[in-house]
Structures are given as C-alpha cells and as structure tokens.
Amino acid sequence: MGGDAVRRFGSVQISETPPMTSPTWGPPGKVVGALSGTLSALAFTAVHGWFIVDIWDGIRRMLFAGVLCGVCIVWSYRKGVGVHSTRRWLAYNGMSVAILIALGAASFLILDPQFTMAELEGSDDALARLIPPALPLLVGTSVVGALGLWVLFGRRPRAFLPILVAQILLVFLVGHNLAILGLVESSSQLTEIVWEFIGLTAFLGAGFAFGVMLIESLKTKRQSMV
After folding, report:
1. Helix-strand-coil split of the chain, %, nearest 5
2. Domain boundaries, the chain
C-alpha cells in the first residue's frame, strides 16, 4: 500500500507517515470539544464584559451554547475531514470564523439601517427587534457557509448534515451579533462595536481550536506514559 500506514479513529484517519507531518494529537473527541467549548464560553463572557457590556447574568446560556457548539464542531470535523492533521483542524476552524466575519460584512452590504444607537441603548427588547429583519441573512449564511466547508473539505455525502448543523449553531448563537450590525445607522460608536465583535469572534474561534489541541495533546501524552 505504498508503505504508508494509516490509523483509523472512527470516521477520521491519521496518516502515520511521513512522521514530520503527523499530528502529535489524535482527532478531537466530543467530550474534549464540550470542555474546550465551556472554557471558551467562560473566556468570551469575561472579555465581553470587560470591553463591551457585562453578560455574566446569561452565563448559563453561554455555557450551554459553548458545549453545544463545541460538540457539533468536533462532530462535523470528524465527519467532514477524511485525514486528520493540525493544519486541517486549524483551517476548518479558521474558515468557520471567516464565515462569521463575512456575515458581518454582508449585513452592511445587504441590510438597510432601521435603528440608531440611541434607540437601542438601554432597550430590553433590542435584540428581539433586530433579529427578525436579519433572519434571512442568518439562514442564508448558514447554508452557504456549510456548502463552502463541505466542498473544501471532501464533499462526502454523509458529512453535509453535520457541517450544516454546526454552521447553523455557530451563525445563530455566535454570529447573530454580527448579522444585526447593518440594521444600525453608521456612527463612530458602531464602528468601535464592529471591531470589538470581530476581535471577540476571532478570539473565541482561536481559543476553542487551540484549547482542543492542548487538551488532546495532554491526553495523548498521558496515555503514552501509562
């Protein structure tokens, strides 16, 4: 078979040769995804409270979203990527972050401003007023983003549904803040918020991806010592 040994982990394969390119950590498991998602949600909540507004009162929802997204990202990665590698894991997560940022850009290009910052500040129902006009954009981004990832990472028929589910969760639970930006009239305050949201989204994605790698590496190292 060409001298290349292949080790299988569920639906994901690791090529064991050449050794210089093999990852030192196995394909991420769902429990690890849930743990990294939880830690990422905690970090996101802390940073969001520091730079934008305190959201600790919604920490239970944040943790639930972190666990759900973490598990589904790992699930979709294992189903969608045939050969596991560090580069593919980072590329998969990087593309997911890029889709969310593209959602924010599309919001400004497609949606017409309907509210001012003054109208929304201090409003208890601001999000409820903003989400309905952005709903078609959220749905469209979920489908287009899933199709893009599916095409880029192997086009396996059984992989599309897990990727679609993961993208729907990411777009609606994480990306909704970016999707509504185009509905707000432009101002210096809005510009500042845009960059904060982009930075937080990148921080969340990087924290999750590298968190999974760290946890899996520690687990692999511990198993090798037993």
Report:
1. 75, 5, 20
2. 6-225
- Hey, what's the torsion of the CAs at 186, 187, 188, 194, to 10 degrees? -40
107 pLDDT exceeds 50?
yes
Here the tokens at position 94 are 């990087």
Of 78, 74, 68, give the one whose Cα is nearest residue 153.
78
Q: What is the pLDDT of residue 125?
A: 81
- Residues 30-45 pLDDT 10s: 999 999 999 999 999 9
What count of other Cβ atoms lies within 10 Å of the Cβ of residue 162? 22
Q: Report pLDDT digits (tens) over 197-211.
A: 899 999 999 999 999
88: amino acid identity, one letter: R
The half-sphere exposure of 11 on its side-chain side, counting CA atoms within 13 A, is 13
Residue 180 structure tokens: 């509504």
Query: What's the pTM value of the predicted model, to 2 decimals?
Result: 0.84
CA distance 218 to 214: 6
Q: Residue by residue, what is the 3-state secondary structure of 18-81?
A: CHHHCCCCCCCCHHHHHHHHHHHHHHHHHHHHHHCCCCHHHHHHHHHHHHHHHHHHHHHHHHHC
